[in-house]
Design brief:
The chain is α/β, with parallel strands linked by helices. The protein contains 16 helices and twelve strands. It has a six-stranded parallel sheet, with helices on both faces.
């Protein structure tokens, strides 16, 4: 895909990639919106984090320096958007931008004077991406929430195997923030950029994280809507009904995940586990407890990695259940360059998740990670057309930092 025509103004921090030349202003500090702009930056967009000026009003959450891939390739400016001079400075940046991403409660950007109508008066091609828990409208629009809340209302928690007490589990990853929100928003932004390339007209994207979770659970939801089935844990092959799709404990306490859905994979698994008696009973509901017991007994005879060595490459759809500490040294991820070396602003070396999505350009050497508190105000405002005197005046007033 050819990237949309870049706006004039500040050069992007990333000069290569599928989104090279796309300028993004990010008004969020954490959460789905920050996940979105992390993706956009890793695809080559120039992302500027616009934060609140320290000491002027409520302060947003400041994430750890290593969070969101350690601010690699992001630039930063702090602006007091409640001050008229601050609004003028932000307006200068908007005129040279392609996308503004925000995660305020519905109505806040309008009260600040930076809603969609105000932004497109400055820049008719601007794309405003608003990420909220429940969207800009509806009875829940003003509700506060976090990842667990959106997984709850979107059907994900109720579709997952319950805890021992019968309650819904707590997901081990921020699935709603990352996929229901961040990826959702990034996909919408990219679609809007393509649309604008044809029309020249910007758009306002109303990203509901809960609706993103609804899409993640849509296979189950669509089945219920079409058939009336009571879809939930243990309903079908991917929700725990059959022994061929489950996890089993090995002799050393490690676990393996089994996803032998296709009959040929199931047959291979039965043979290698010494459970040939169940070859013709993969979907026989009456004997699933017995199959599970026999599979569990077989897996309990050897350590996890021994079973993985025997089964994983033998078309059985078996894999190890890895901890975070294990996966960062996984040989498959290492071969793909998924974990990269990074160098912090103080010269410290560490590792982080790299450019892992398809189409992202992967670096040849260590990634430079900036100090997340560093300011690019002078360069950004100068490139947006403000004079050095005007910038100095804004700094002296404490409106920008």
């Amino acid at each position: 895909m050819t990237a949309p025509s870049p706006s004039s103004g500040a050069p992007p921090a990333a000069t290569t990639g599928l989104l090279a030349g796309v300028a993004v202003l990010d008004l969020a500090s954490v959460g789905p919106a920050a996940r979105c702009t992390r993706l956009l930056a890793d695809y080559g967009a120039s992302v500027v984090k616009v934060g609140a000026v320290p000491g002027r009003g409520a302060q947003p959450i400041r994430p750890h320096s290593y969070a969101y891939s350690g601010s690699r390739s992001w630039r930063r400016i702090d602006i007091d958007l409640k001050d008229p001079d601050g609004l003028d400075a932000f307006a200068a940046l908007v005129r040279t931008a392609d996308v503004v991403v925000e995660s305020f409660r519905p109505g806040v950007v309008d009260r600040l004077g930076i809603g969609f109508e105000a932004l497109r008066a400055l820049n008719p091609g601007i794309i405003l991406c608003s990420t909220t828990g429940y969207g800009q409208s509806g009875p829940r629009a003003a509700w506060a929430g976090h990842d667990i809340n959106y997984l709850a209302v979107g059907g994900y928690l109720a579709s997952t195997q319950p805890r021992a007490d019968g309650g819904p589990p707590i997901a081990g990853a921020t699935i709603a923030d990352a996929a229901g929100g961040g990826m959702h928003a990034a996909l919408a932004v990219m679609a809007a950029l393509i649309g604008r390339h044809a029309t020249g007209v910007g758009s306002h994207l109303d990203v509901s994280i809960a609706e993103g979770v609804l899409w993640l659970t849509s296979l189950a939801v669509d089945e219920h809507l079409a058939t009336g089935a009571d879809v939930g844990p243990g309903h079908d092959i991917i929700s725990g009904r059959y022994a061929c799709y489950d996890s089993y404990r090995a002799a050393d306490g490690g676990w393996v995940a089994v996803g032998a859905i296709e009959p040929k994979f199931y047959a291979n698994l039965c043979i290698l586990l010494g459970c040939e008696q169940w070859l013709d009973h993969q979907l026989d509901d009456d004997v699933q407890p017995k199959i599970r017991d026999d599979f569990a007994a077989a897996f309990a005879t050897r350590d996890r990695d021994a079973w993985v060595a025997t089964l994983a490459g033998a078309d059985t759809c078996v894999s190890p259940v890895q901890t975070v500490a294990e996966l960062v040294d996984d040989d498959q991820l290492a071969a793909r360059g998924a974990i990269v070396e990074a160098t912090g602003a103080d010269g410290e070396r560490f590792r982080q998740v790299g450019y892992v999505l398809a189409g992202m350009e992967r670096p040849d050497g260590p990634v430079a990670v900036r100090d997340p508190a560093a300011s690019d105000a002078d360069d950004l405002l100068g490139a947006a057309g403000l004079s050095p005197e005007r910038i100095s005046d804004l700094r002296a007033k404490g409106v920008v930092a």
